[in-house]
Q: What sequence folds into this?
């Protein structure tokens, strides 16, 4: 089972007993306000189960890592990546509101970038809903560059929102 460590975080693969955390993350309005509209529990469960199988670089599902604070042993959220095509992956993370703004997103993403480099990926991208200023800052801190804006790409809360695409060249 994949395990990554940072100064403050322990990152490990999602397991069945993480269902309460996963459900809480997806039900928390502050966590999801730039991600999805409210989803039925059955759809959240499908997404959870899709992430449970052992992950390899050939997997079609997300590598979903639970972030645990080393100091408190508290689970803070999830982070990870999914391969979009050979050599290229998308990254993402979700944090419970009480742990946002404390650098955990940046720290976890740096660990994911290190893992992506170690397994030979060439580029990473992140899709951020316009207005999610905090996630744009995380991308900047982790060395991503803004690549393009996709107008009216996503319907969220009854309003069409632009997607902001960020990219990181791992061999640059």
A:
């Amino acid at each position: 089972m994949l395990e990554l460590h940072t100064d403050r975080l322990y990152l490990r693969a999602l397991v069945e007993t993480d269902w309460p955390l996963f459900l809480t993350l997806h039900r928390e309005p502050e966590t999801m306000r730039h991600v999805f509209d409210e989803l039925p529990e059955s759809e959240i469960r499908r997404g959870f189960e899709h992430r449970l199988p052992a992950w390899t670089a050939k997997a079609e599902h997300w590598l979903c890592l639970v972030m645990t604070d080393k100091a408190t042993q508290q689970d803070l959220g999830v982070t990870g990546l999914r391969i979009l095509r050979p050599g290229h992956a998308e990254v993402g993370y979700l944090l419970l509101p009480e742990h946002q703004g404390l650098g955990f997103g940046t720290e976890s993403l740096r660990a994911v970038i290190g893992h992506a480099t170690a397994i030979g990926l060439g580029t990473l991208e992140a899709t951020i809903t316009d207005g999610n200023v905090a996630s744009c800052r995380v991308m900047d801190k982790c060395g991503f560059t803004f690549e393009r804006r996709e107008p009216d790409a996503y319907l969220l809360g009854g309003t069409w929102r632009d997607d902001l695409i960020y990219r990181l060249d791992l061999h640059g």
